[in-house]
Amino acid sequence: MTAVSLPAADELLVAGRRVRYRIAGDGPPVVLLHGIGRTLDDFVEQQDLLARDHRVISVDLPGHGGSAPLDGPHTLPAFASAVADFLDAAGVDNPAHLVGNSLGGAVAMRLAVDDPSRVASLVLVNSAGFGREVTVALRLLALRPLGRLLLRPSLAVARRTEEAIFHDRSFVTDERVAHALAVARQPHAAPVMLELVRSLGTLRGVRPQWREELLAAVSALDIPTLIVWGDRDLILPAAHLETARARLPKARTHLFPDTGHMPQIERAEEFHRLVTEFWSTTGA
Q1: Which of 169, 178, 192, 201 has the CB geometry, 3.0–4.6 Å to 63, for a possible disulfide?
Q2: What local confidence, expressed as pLDDT, does residue 1 receive?
Q3: For residues 36-50, b (16+ Cβ closer than 10 Å) or e, as one string?
Q4: Which residues pair with 229 in a beta bridge?
């Protein structure tokens, strides 16, 4: 398999830092935020579907894909601040629906806490922040110097990563594997991922301190929230959905059967219907 570059997207300079993004459609703004070590390409299907009646913005988080790393530490608050700066630069003036997968869910929650006036609703997709348990592959990255060795780009690692993400192996295509390898080969990818992983977790799992503070703050907000999960998630187990229901009792929840870490891809049409119905029935 030959290596490929990242798919074409737009670029914008935000405070002198290159940001890769896509914008499509017209209507209420929707912002799509991907997970750790991933890119906006995890939301291609939803960008196409949602752009029928929304202005849909997807963006590579700092130090991911085609977006340059930050000058300072790569932490959850820094990521939320970077998303806010990007939205200002992209001219997103109205409150937006934030849709975050995995790490992107935690970034969305952090942004909602830091500046709730920016947020019309939260859609948290197999989101980080609800439990300690996380795949051993991410926990091992917290170990020095093992983490750097584990992040050496290789075709085998790229394929194993995709196989862990999708329950339905038909989604583990050569194209997706090649894309994952291209992402891993970006010069900033490994250093940023290591810094971020170590700020959020340890060998034992996701750190409780930032989770507890974030969930307490989110629970005090009056923002419509939908939390969804795939019941076969190997990255963040579906048991975290029970914690989410307990900590955010006003939120709507949905569990996708026979689905892995990215229901927005594996259950694209169903996911789209669920999210748009949520927005229409909550008046968000």
Answers
A1: 192
A2: 37
A3: bbbbbbbbbbbbebb
A4: 255
